[in-house]
Each structure stands twice: as structure tokens, then as C-alpha cells.
Design a protein that fits this description.
Strand order of the largest sheet: 5-6-7-3-8-9
Number of strands: 17
Helix content: 25-40%
Length: 514
């Protein structure tokens, strides 16, 4: 049974079609991964499905009575609430049901005869449903799900205003799962989860009986949870059976077939236009020329085949040779109180360190301490005086929302010529119009590429990278991993992606709360 039908969906972004007359049927119980290259329109598609964005044309029709929800990691949350108060909002419908039951009890006090019998039946029905749905033990129900995502680590009495961005993301995901919806729309749910909680989410989603659509660039995650893949490409939205690995094989075949179809159509258009030009002025053939023009006008012109935008990341190296390149001794990091204590790490000038641990434990705080943005709470650290550091922050914040990729690059590299700017951006896949669009109009993956383009033009011997793979598509992620493997210097990497980090790093530090 279908729970969602999309008919002739069309939507333009700037000067191009993301989808054009696209159709899709989603059936009850399907577990769907939504994929596409950076900038393909995945988040736009999900926002249209949730009604947050209006499509230019077409219909999005849900089965009547279907309850849906969207994981928006950037949504505004009432910071004055405690964690438990926020999570209990997932059961507002049960609280409303309980209010109706209390109102019936009040009416029963003065009711008689048939009216009383009717009220008794209604109250029994409501009371039974409240028991069945666990209303009288909601906190236990909340903790069963939220503990799996590590919410217990920062506490149910914690005030939301005091939580980190990653902790809020976990909180919002927990609430969505607790809402027991018919359709869940998930946009990069693993971005702020550590390995342990990703595995818990995999088990939860595999046991989920209803429908979900999930955007993710984590191939391993998609392979584990998805039974169907929806690919956004060439203005089309196409569904494939099977996990991501199976999809890649089918997609390659379809891409070749589409390219052949496009080339045939372009050849036909060229022949037709040449015929029209030759014959439109001659009286004897003008009628035929007009007929060909009408046929051409009615033709459904295929979009130019998606160009696989290759990335090349190369981090120039400044030579240094030191056995004690980074030395951390009994270091404690935090803000008003320590998050991680007694950190002891020794790195030479070629070591690559993976910092892993639960979200919110203080991994980013540790990096900011090493960058001297935050003062240490106790202990000390030493970074070799010949260290040339490049630092990539996790947050995609830009002071000027109207700044283009070219302007952002030039602000950070003011001595580079215009040709060098364009060349550097193009090497990471930011070509043509993308380079002159405001940064806020680029996808998350495109924004990360721009930031990395600046870093790859500066020589260094120590890279400090905070979740660099967030938002990157498969192509960019593969290129970045190879660049980090090839880098001759030291790396300090925070990452939640096991396959990526273990291929790059030779040392692991498990960040644990005090």
C-alpha cells in the first residue's frame, strides 16, 4: 500500500532544474536511502516532502491520516526546557487524550442513565488506550530510546540551553523516534553520533515497521539500514531495489543508458534545426519546416547528463622531523568545569591521531584547546615551534551570508590571483556558477569543499580536522581520505566515521568524560 505519491514534481533552484516532472511512489514499510552528489537537491527534496518548501509544479500526496516527522538538526528548540520535558512532548497526543478522559470523569459526576453509560464506555476505551500506549510509564519509555542515543550521558534534568549542538541533534532525533510516526524524514542522522550510537540506530531502524527516507553520505550506514535507494540525478527521482552497494552497479548502467539517450536526442535536435534553417524561407518547404518546429517545441528535452565532479585534495607539506612533535601531559579541557581530564598523548611529526568518543564528551573542546581558542583547565601541552598548523572547524558558519565562494577564498588568501582562485576552487569541484553563488546557497558538502580548497593552498605539517567528512559526498570523501593518507605530516582527526578514520590514522585516543 502506498503512503506517499509524488506526481510530476518540478523544482528550480537558481537557473537549473533539480527535478523536472519527476514521479515516485513510496510504499508502507519501505526503508529508503536518498542519495545524489553534493548539490543534487537531496535536502530540498526532503523539505518539499515535509511541506517546509513549496515545489514549483506537481503534487506531493500522503495517504490520509499518515503522521510524519522531519529531523531538522538546525531547528530552534526552547532552551528553557529540560531534556525530559522536551522528550515528553513526543507524547502530547497522549496528554491530550488524558485531558479528555479527565473531562469525561468530571461529566460522569452529574450524569445519569444512558448518558452515564455512554460516558463509562468512552472512559473505558480511552483508559485502555492510555495503558496500551504506556502513558503511565512514559519516562521509562523515553529512556529506553534516548539512552540508546546517549542522551543519558548529559542527563535528563539538563537544561537544553546548556547543551552542545551535537547533544541537541541527539535530543531531536530521540524525540522523533519516540513519536512513533508513520513516515520519518531523516537528514544526515549520523552526523553527530559516535560509533556506538550509530550501531544502536542501525538496529532501531532495521526493526522499525513503518516507513523512513534517510539522506546520508555514510555508505556503510546506508548499506545496513536501506532496502531501497532513491537517486536524484539529471532532474529525475528514481527508486532502486536493494542497498547502496547494489544501487551503484545499477546506477552505472543507467547513467550510460541515459548518456546514450541524451546524445541521440541532441543529434536529432541538431538535424531538425538544420532542416528548419534550410527550408523555412522556401515556399515549397516552409510548411514542412513549421511542422518540424512544432515537433521540436513539444519535445521533452533531456537535462545534460550529470557531470561527476572529481575532487583533488592535496595538502602541501613543510618538512619537519621531531620525535616529540605534539606532547600532551595530564591535560584537562572544558569550560566552567572539565569535560575530559588527564589526557596524555605523544605524537611524532608523522603520526596521525584519531580522536573518537561519544558526542558531547569534549572532542571539539580538546581541539580548540590545542588551537589556544580555549584555555586548558589543568595540565599542559606542547606543540613543536616549527609546526605549521591548518585547522578545519566542524561548524559551517560564515560571517557574511552574501559572500561567494570566490570572495571567501580571496578573503583567506588575499595574495592569490583571480586565476589561482578559480583553479583552486575548480580542483575541489566548485566550478562555473557555483564559484560565484553566495555560500549559503551552496549545499553543505559544497561549503566544506570551499573551506578545504583554502586549506590545500597552504603548506603545513600538522592538520587538525574536526569531522571533515560531514556533508561530503562519496566522491569528495574518497579524495579527501587519499589526500590525508598521502600527507607526510601529522594529523589530529576527530571523526565519527570508522572506515574513514581507521584507514588514515595509526594512533587512537578514546575521549571519555571525567
Amino acid at each position: 500500500m502506498s503512503v506517499l505519491e509524488i506526481k510530476n514534481l518540478s523544482h528550480r533552484y537558481d537557473d537549473r532544474w533539480l527535478f523536472e516532472k519527476a514521479n515516485l511512489v513510496v510504499n508502507n514499510g519501505e526503508h529508503i536511502g536518498v542519495v545524489g552528489l553534493n548539490g543534487a537537491g537531496k535536502s530540498t527534496f526532503i523539505n518539499i516532502l515535509d511541506g517546509r518548501l513549496s515545489q514549483d509544479e506537481g503534487e506531493v500526496n500522503y495517504l490520509g491520516g499518515v503522521r510524519r516527522g522531519y529531523l531538522d538538526q538546525y531547528a530552534t528548540v526552547d532552551g528553557s526546557l529540560t531534556v525530559m520535558e522536551y522528550l515528553l512532548q513526543a507524547f502530547d497526543y497522549l496528554y491530550a487524550m488524558n485531558d479528555r478522559l479527565e473531562a469525561i470523569y468530571t461529566q460522569m459526576e452529574s450524569a445519569q442513565g444512558e448518558q452515564l453509560d455512554l460516558l463509562i464506555k468512552r472512559s473505558a476505551s480511552l483508559s485502555e488506550r492510555l495503558v496500551t500506549e504506556g502513558f503511565y510509564d512514559l519516562e521509562s519509555k523515553v529512556k529506553k530510546v534516548a539512552n540508546g542515543l546517549g542522551v543519558n550521558k548529559f542527563g535528563y534534568n539538563a537544561v537544553i540551553a546548556n547543551l552542545s549542538g551535537g547533544e541537541r541533534a541527539k535530543l531531536m532525533l530521540s524525540k522523533l523516534l519516540l513519536s512513533e510516526l508513520d513516515i520519518m524524514l531523516l537528514d544526515e542522522p549520523t552526523n553527530f553520533l559516535d560509533v556506538e550510537h550509530v550501531e544502536w540506530l542501525v538496529k532501531y531502524l532495521n526493526s522499525f515497521k513503518k516507513t523512513f527516507l534517510v539522506i546520508s553520505h555514510d555508505v556503510e550506514f546506508l548499506d545496513k539500514v536501506c532496502k531501497q535507494i532513491v537517486n536524484i540525478e539529471n532532474g529525475r527521482i528514481k527508486k532502486y531495489s536493494g542497498n547502496y552497494t547494489r544501487f551503484t552497479v545499477q546506477r552505472a548502467e543507467d547513467a550510460k543508458q541515459y548518456e546514450d539517450e541524451y546524445n541521440r536526442q541532441q543529434a536529432e535536435i541538431k538535424r531538425t534545426m538544420e532542416y528548419i534553417e534550410r527550408n523555412k524561407a522556401r515556399a515549397s518547404t516552409a510548411k514542412m519546416a513549421r511542422s518540424r518546429q512544432k515537433k521540436l517545441d513539444k519535445m521533452n528535452i533531456l537535462s545534460t547528463p550529470t557531470e561527476i565532479t572529481e575532487c583533488t585534495f592535496t595538502f602541501p607539506y613543510v618538512d619537519v622531523n621531531a620525535k616529540e612533535f605534539v606532547k600532551i601531559k595530564n591535560l584537562s579541557v572544558g569550560y566552567s568545569y572539565p569535560l575530559i581530564e588527564n589526557i596524555n598523548i605523544l605524537m611524532n611529526s608523522t603520526d596521525k591521531l584519531w580522536i573518537r568518543g561519544t558526542n558531547g564528551v569534549g572532542k571539539t573542546t580538546l581541539l580548540k584547546t590545542l588551537m589556544r581558542v580555549i584555555a586548558p583547565k589543568a595540565g599542559s601541552f606542547f606543540i613543536h615551534p616549527e609546526a605549521k598548523i591548518l585547522y578545519l572547524e566542524q561548524d559551517l558558519n560564515f560571517d557574511d551570508k552574501a559572500m561567494t565562494a570566490v570572495e571567501y577564498y580571496s578573503l583567506n588568501r588575499p595574495m592569490d590571483k583571480a586565476s589561482k582562485v578559480r583553479q583552486s576552487l575548480a580542483s575541489v569541484g566548485i566550478k562555473g556558477d557555483l564559484a560565484t553563488k553566495p555560500m549559503v546557497k551552496l549545499s553543505g558538502g559544497e561549503q566544506v569543499r570551499v573551506k578545504l580548497s583554502v586549506l590545500t593552498t597552504t603548506s603545513a605539517n600538522l592538520l587538525i580536522l574536526d569531522e571533515p567528512t560531514n556533508h561530503l559526498d562519496v566522491i569528495a570523501k574518497k579524495a579527501l581520505k587519499q589526500a590525508l593518507i598521502d600527507f607526510e605530516g601529522a594529523i589530529i582527526l576527530v571523526s565519527h566515521e570508522t572506515e574513514f578514520a581507521k584507514d588514515v590514522c595509526n594512533i587512537i585516543f578514546d575521549a571519555k568524560a571525567k
